[in-house]
Amino acid sequence: MKKAAFSINYLIADFLAAFLAWIAFYIFRKYLLNEIQVGVSFSLLYSALPIATFWTLLFALWGTYVDVIRKSRVKELFSLFTACLTGVVVIFFALLLDDEGVSTYTQYYKTVSTYFLLHFTVVALEKMVVMTYTKRLIRRRSIWFNTLLIGSEKNALEIYQEVDTNHDLLGLRFMGYVHVFRKESPVEHFLPCLGDYRDLEEILKKHKIEQVIIAVEPSEHKRMEEILTLLEGAGVYISIIPDLYQILLGSVRVQHIFGTPLIEIRQNLMPVWQRVAKRLFDFLIALLVLVLGAPLYLIVALITRVTSPGPSLYSQERIGKDGQPFRIYKFRSMYIDAETNGPALSSDNDPRITPWGRIMRKTRLDETPQFFNVLKGEMSIVGPRPERQYFIDQITARAPHYKHLLKVRPGITSLGQVKYGYAGNVDEMVRRMKYDIIYIENMSLAMDMRILLYTIMIILQGRGK
């Protein structure tokens, strides 16, 4: 069975469990309310379908069907408890609050608690059965994850031996290792050498690698940034063997009771429900701003056209999520042919900026057409500012980890912009990048709201550039 099919199987199993739990609750409800007629009718079966659909959608937003094979049963039970509690509260206010058969608060408490216990128990039992079956397939080596070891010295050998001891629990199958420094390696007696770490992109594709374990020596840590940059966007799970200092800092997590202490590089920057909520928020706000602000934008466009020759709108190619190019839109704030000598960044006293353009930049009016990019899904309201490929090449030459910023949609405003401000040269771009990386590693809806509030303050105070 393909690994992708497991998510579908888990979803179907959850749907059936939620379906049965609702029918069981209906029967128990009749008993709790002392109603004479108890039975299962066709209308009950029909009404259970939307309830089961609601639960599977809720579990999907909860991230239940993401990487199901690797999930821990204990962690999944804790996650299920909070998901069930949330879902039952929603169903209570949507369906049970106006239940005609309930007349006292005691009956409310009984019906709600009964449904929660029934649903949680049925779904928990179903999940434990399905997940236990999956774990058995891993133990039998019917399921495995092609794994690459990066490193060739003592640490690499130790991590290989420890992981290999628990291969029946972890499902990792080592395909080989790659050198960091070319010299004789103790690992070569156990694993084939697949090449040099600089050839990672080709090695990952050739051997269909799904997980990478970086086990470099302390003397090799200067290579870590280069290795992580090469792995950026590769779509593999990355784990790093920690040193004692990192363990004391508390950055090390064990995913399995028999697992090896590793630093896990997060793949999903936000929970599924927050990613959905962020995109929905972006779409609705962009639509609202474009519709309500249409008269203002017409006035801005006319003033732009009257105060300097040239079109009102200006478009330029920028690089977005996953390195995909797109056309960004702005109200033109510079004179036409401003880059006849090639790409150039703007400065505080840039003579290329028109007088009206300076006013627009102070109030960020020139950025408002980018809400159309947000509507199209090319940008987000909050995210790292998109750059041109010309400048990205210069930034990555000095700071290869710039590629980390391409993991998310670029934004109209960003933490780097509100904390550091406008970057007038490549060195300032590199320094501003620190704040954008902090944002990416701490992405949340709450963080977006704080950045938006700061941006509004900057606009009201006219401190834009």
What this model shows, in words?
With 465 residues, the chain is an alpha/beta fold. The chain has three domains: 3-139, no CATH class; 145-265, Rossmann fold; 272-461, no CATH class. 53% of the residues lie in helices and 11% in strands. The protein has 17 helices and ten strands. The strands form three sheets. It has a six-stranded mixed beta sheet with strand order 3-2-1-4-5-6. Strands 7-8 form a two-stranded antiparallel sheet. Strand 4, helix 8 and strand 5 (237-240) form a beta-alpha-beta unit. Helix 14 (389-398) crosses helix 16 (426-441). The relative contact order is 0.07. The model has no long low-confidence stretch (mean pLDDT 84). InterPro entries: Bact_transf, EPS_sugar_tfrase. Its main location: membrane.
Which key phrases capture this entry?
465 residues; alpha/beta; Rossmann fold; 3 domains; six-stranded mixed sheet; 17 helices; 53% helix
